[in-house]
From TrEMBL:
Binding-site list for substrate: R54, G55, A56, R95, Q208, N259, K260
The protein's annotated pathway: Amino-acid biosynthesis; L-methionine biosynthesis via salvage pathway; L-methionine from S-methyl-5-thio-alpha-D-ribose 1-phosphate: step 1/6
Family that this chain belongs to: Belongs to the EIF-2B alpha/beta/delta subunits family. MtnA subfamily.
Reaction catalysed by this enzyme: 5-(methylsulfanyl)-alpha-D-ribose 1-phosphate = 5-(methylsulfanyl)-D-ribulose 1-phosphate
Transmembrane segments: none
Protein name: Methylthioribose-1-phosphate isomerase
Keyword set, alphabetical order: Amino-acid biosynthesis, Isomerase, Methionine biosynthesis
């Protein structure tokens, strides 16, 4: 996508210094656009854990580049493979819910093991990291094309009137390498001249909707309105939402969807108001082994300070202020699980399917053997 008119991805290898990976440090958006140099596995792990980069696809891509940095470091270590293993463990421990993390680490480990000596392993690790990133971008672009058909159909049914879409959190290009999952159909529709308008949930506690999704949509010229997290149900009851599209951090082979906390409530409200609730994801976000999302998907709990405090721009500086009484405990569940029965369909790079095992495996037969 473009930032200030310039094509940009969320992560890439430094053009003059291939030992450095560069990322957009998303902690400062929308106030400042800062590119961070990452030169060690340790700093990549911090970048993932502390959410300089975030979103399932980007977490996977960052893990892929992290393993490339690990291979560079391993050349100087006494034992190449055991250094790689410890870097794998470090990166894997950063965030528990998005399955793309382990998926990318496993893909890297398998690929690197085919190299014979250190330089060949490093070359493979670099190529694999770039392949993971390119594939992520390409899959999201395809999700956009498939999802476009849903928006087009609604637009036609409304005789070309604006299609109002609700989204939660940020499943935009900032959550991936490019395009995004939930936003890709929206960008495709907007680019095709279909009138769309997006209601953006602010998404407490970290406000990825307010800070990131609103910024992205604004950069691309997509009309949007920011709403508080609890407004969606009210808008649905008053016929103001035609479609909900969210992303996901892990979707079971049976169609249960883990996504940012609050997604489940949006799905319930959508069901009650007969509004289609779609989830957009690349295949790297499927968990082929899990059958029951509610009991099996690990739900990240983050620092309660994200709830007791809010961050914002004050006198040109980003500041954090307390909003609750000192001493009141807070619990910060970062994700929830929406059962498959509440999901109208899954928009993937291969097409749209129902959120059930049979339909998912029909599109992705290789999932049976994972
Ligand atoms: O905690 P985050 O910001 O990493 O959460 C990720 C999200 O934004 C998700 O909820 C999103 O919808 C899926 S990630 C593509």
């Amino acid at each position: 996508m473009k930032v200030n008119g310039k094509p940009t991805r969320t992560i890439w290898i430094h053009s003059e210094c291939p030992e450095i990976v560069q990322i957009i440090d998303q902690r400062w958006l929308p106030h400042q656009y800062i590119v961070e140099d990452i030169g060690t596995v340790e700093s990549m792990a911090i970048a993932i854990r502390d959410m300089h980069v975030r979103g399932a696809g980007l977490i996977g891509a960052a893990a892929g580049y992290g393993m490339y940095l690990a291979a560079l470091e391993a050349k100087a270590a006494t034992d190449f493979d055991s250094h790689l293993d410890s870097c794998y463990a470090l990166l894997e421990s950063t965030r528990p819910t998005a399955v793309n993390l382990a998926w990318a680490l496993d893909r890297q480990l398998q690929a690197i093991s085919k190299g014979r000596e250190a330089d060949e392993k490093i070359r493979i690790a670099m190529n694999t990291a770039c392949a993971i990133a390119d594939e992520d971008a390409d899959f999201c672009r395809r999700i956009g094309q498939h999802g476009l058909s849903i928006i087009r159909e609604i637009s036609t049914a409304k005789n070309g009137d604006t299609v109002n879409i609700l989204t939660h959190c940020n499943a935009g290009w900032l959550a991936f390498v490019d395009y995004g999952s939930a936003t890709a159909p929206i960008y495709a529709a907007h680019d095709a001249g279909i009138m769309v308008h997006v209601y953006v949930d602010e998404t407490r506690p970290r406000n990825q909707g307010a800070a990131l999704t609103a910024w992205e949509l604004g950069q691309h010229g997509v009309p949007h309105t920011l709403i508080v997290d609890n407004a969606g149900g009210h808008l649905m009851q008053h016929g103001m939402i035609d479609l909900v599209i969210t992303g996901t951090d892990r979707t079971t082979v049976t169609g249960d969807v883990a996504n940012k906390i609050g997604t489940y409530l949006k799905a319930l409200a959508a069901k009650d108001n007969t509004i289609p609730f779609y989830v957009a994801l690349p295949s790297s976000t499927f968990d082929w082994k899990m059958k029951n999302g509610l009991s099996e998907i690990p739900i990240e709990q983050r620092n309660p300070e994200e709830i007791t405090h809010v961050e914002g721009l004050c006198d040109g500086k980003i500041k954090s202020v307390r909003i609750s009484p000192t001493g009141s405990p807070a619990a910060n569940y970062a994700f929830d699980v929406t059962p498959a029965r509440l999901v109208t369909g899954l928009i993937t790079e291969r097409g749209i399917c129902r959120a059930d095992r049979e339909s998912i495996l029909q599109l992705f037969p290789e999932g049976r053997h994972k």
